[in-house]
Amino acid sequence: MQRRLNKINTPVDPLEWEMTPPTVNAYFHPLQNNINFPAGILQPPFFNRHADDPINYGGIGAVIGHELTHGFDDEGRSFDAQGNLNDWWSDADAKAFNERAACLVDQYASYVAVDDVKVNGKLTLGENVADHGGLRLALMALTDVLTTQKPKPIDGFTPQQRLFLGWAQVWCQSIRPEAARMRAQTDPHSPARFRVNGVLSNMPEFGQAFACQAEAPMVRTTPCRVW
Ligand SMILES: [Zn+2]
């Protein structure tokens, strides 16, 4: 606390880390306009040097895209390139963003976190925007690689399928109902199940990769897309 208080009225240190090296997490810093990945997250399941690229694209690749997208979510978009709170968007862009974001708010608000507790679509909006943008960036990067490389299926799964499996794998979890209830009301991240299914059901590329029928549960008829 004293160390933090001592910072008052001193210059901002743009090189300061807000997480310790072993932390399994990552962050976008709107005031510094940078993205940060402690050593702790650069290990399985997020990054596995023995895994094929599509798995890692769906893991740490999507996480990197997630942090990048935070710069353009409902909060990050109000900071400019210098990290100042400054509305740099045109009115038309802001309006279009809000319309697209409203789609995600409604989608996630329809999910049940536990028992009678629903997901809070507004609380989780920024993280949901980041999840969608992040996985899409990872897919774009993989698609780019696949123009020159043709990796064979592994365990019967194509590279595209393995990217989506990689994304699902990083959110495997076991959580007690009490914790799920508490998190649904305080955590800006959606429950892990919806970080997976909420994103994938909005991506036509997922349905194509797994040859889903049009009426399949994982194919939303009017998918939301912000970025
Ligand atoms: Zn995030």
Structure report:
The protein is mainly α. It has a single domain (41-209), classed as Collagenase (Catalytic Domain) (3-Layer(aba) Sandwich). The protein has helices at residues 2-5, 53-70, 91-109, 125-145, 159-170, 177-186, 192-200, 204-209; strands spanning 27-29, 34-36, 112-114, 117-118. Strand 1 and strand 2 form a beta hairpin. Helix 4 packs across helix 7 (192-200). The protein is globular. It starts with a helix and ends in an 18-residue tail after the last helix. The mean pLDDT is 96. The structure holds zinc ion. Zinc ion binds at residues 66, 70, 127, 130. Residues 66, 70, 127, 130 line the site of zinc ion.
Topology diagram in text:
Elements: H1 2-5, E1 27-29, E2 34-36, H2 53-70, H3 91-109, E3 112-114, E4 117-118, H4 125-145, H5 159-170, H6 177-186, H7 192-200, H8 204-209
Antiparallel strand pairs: 1-2, 3-4
Helix pairs in contact: 2-4, 2-5, 4-5, 4-7
